[in-house]
Amino acid sequence: MLTNIKDFQSYLDTYQESIDNPEKFWGAVAEAFTWNKKWDSVLEWDFTKPEVKWFQGGKLNITVNCLDRHLPERANQTAIIWEPNDPNEAVVKLTYQELFDKVCQFANVLKNNGITKGDRVCIYMPMVPELCIALLACARIGAVHSVVFAGFSSSSLADRINDASCKLVLTSDGGFRGGKTLALKAIVDEALLDCPSVEKSIVLKRTGEAVTMQPNRDLWWHDEVAKADTHCEAEIMDAEDMLFILYTSGSTGKPKGMVHTCGGYMIYTTYTFKNAFQYKEGEIYWCTADIGWITGHSYIVYGPLAAGATSMMFEGVPSYPDMGRFWQVVEKHAVNIFYTAPTAIRALEKADISYVEKYDLSSLRVLGTVGEPINEEAWHWYDDHIGKGKCPIIDTWWQTETGGFMISPIAGITPTKPTYATLPMPGIQPAVMNENGQELAGNGVEGRLCIKFPWPSMARTIYGNHERFRNTYFSAFENKYFTGDGCKKDEDGYYRITGRVDDVIIVSGHNLGTAEIENVIDEHKEVCETAVVGFPHDVKGHAVYAYVTCYHTPDNEEDLRQEIITLVAKTIGPIAKPEKIQFVSGLPKTRSGKIMRRILRKIAEKDTSNLGDTSTLLDPGVVETIIEGAL
Ligand code: WT7
Predict the structure, then answer these.
(1) Ligand 1 centre and the CA of 198: distance in Å?
(2) 585, 625 in Cβ contact below 8 A?
(3) Is the pLDDT of residue 621 over 90?
(4) Taking a C-beta distance cutoff of 8 angstroms, is the pair 534, 544 a contact?
(5) ipTM of model
(6) For residue 436, what is the domain's CATH number?
(7) In which domain, by residue range, is 593 found?
(8) For ligand 1, is residue 272 a contact (CB within 6 Å)?
(9) Ligand 1 proximity of 298 Cβ (cutoff 6 Å)
């Protein structure tokens, strides 16, 4: 049973059932899917190891559920609408039949190039239909995809390729993004200088720019497709076989390859897509995220397609050719459900309101947001100007690690409150914890957000490093998954996410690890030591503030700043560029040598009235100097 939430009372009843008897609940949901063999047990779990297994013994292929099983009733329904970067270029619409054929054909391309079940395939592509096809083609034959967002640098790409020992890279000559083109193939070429596991790359022609094709390694996408048959049986997978790896930043320097598996991920993303958005047959759904992030995996590709929806993908950016683009696209395709990030809303809110008023937005029924806490002003602007006060806003809180929505309103059913993610999805059991590890039961509490019971789409491990998985998520609070977020639970039991409580900064909805940025800045020959924190930013939510000590007083601070910014952009990617770089003579450290980021965060926030206890500092004087020089 996929949907039975009709009103608020039925949400409450469904939630209660899901908590009272999770196995019965998820077993019933799973019945709505196509399995080659049913599961032997719904759930086995132990958070101390941690080990979580859903639908063990079950056999399936997620692409059968996203494609084959829809063909009898919706072969001619549009599965994917692709809106290009350039509004004058032709839209591409793929029906379920066409998508099915293309996925099978590309699955054969993968096979023809030696890819088999379990092999890792890195995908570094722009937002074109072939990206969606590539993910599904991997899943069709049981290959594990590892999508790397096409804004990452060559060295970030190389790190991710090497971490998973990918055998193949799928890319394109270039990509269009607003007024710019990205030289993706050139970036891949640079990365591959350092990636011994990669045997081949397959290159899609998108921008037509000149690229170097290395003989015996690089193949053209169109040549390979021309040779491939459109029939491809789906590989039968165990429910707990790996479906994909997706990297996310962590508190230490190295990105974590989160591992998601086939069965639970499919069921949970589909269930939450249908229910949270209250998706209705035939509606046009648009999630503006890039498929390079979990939002795109779960809520552009897998969830919507398994639910038989029409899912739109957009190649461009909200500001191109002008700040009205999103609204122009909503009108053009009569979009019913629109899902975006608070950072985009804040940027668009600053543009002249005529960019919104020019377009007919009456097709919209539901709005969504994701990625970071949405501030009250942005929430109201979205509600008033985009939803015209008639569209429920679902503020969906979740993570790369959780695979799907965790806390979110059910559109039109859960009464919303601005800035609140509201209530848990069925099956999700949050716990608010204090710093001593005690659960703060009841309402009107504030603390760290944990989850105390497994849900089907949770990540199972960090690729190649289960110990890190345990340490990061299951060691801070006994027998609980720790999210890294803080939250408030108000008198009505509604959750409001207050932001990260660890060393992760969310910039424009993108996760960045402070250590990762520090490591890069420290590589500059003049830099001695760096401490990076986040500070509130109007549009980006948070931005990067770097405190840098140098071996010698810099001759020209501005030049050095530019060099550092370029180094970060080149090593990690433009999203990680520091907004502010303050050169300091020393960092505030404890006697044991630990940098007191709490103090640096306050200085960056310009809130120095109460710096808390500084008595444990080795040299309290350093704080005064930093405050004086603050940017
Ligand atoms: C972190 C996860 C899940 C897809 C996008 C980000 C923050 C996410 C919300 C929200 C407040 C949010 C959290 C979370 N976050 N959604 N609706 N309200 N905060 O995935 O890159 O794994 O980042 O994003 O801090 O831990 P991600």
Answers:
(1) 32
(2) yes
(3) no
(4) yes
(5) 0.99
(6) 3.40.50.12780
(7) 508-628
(8) no
(9) no
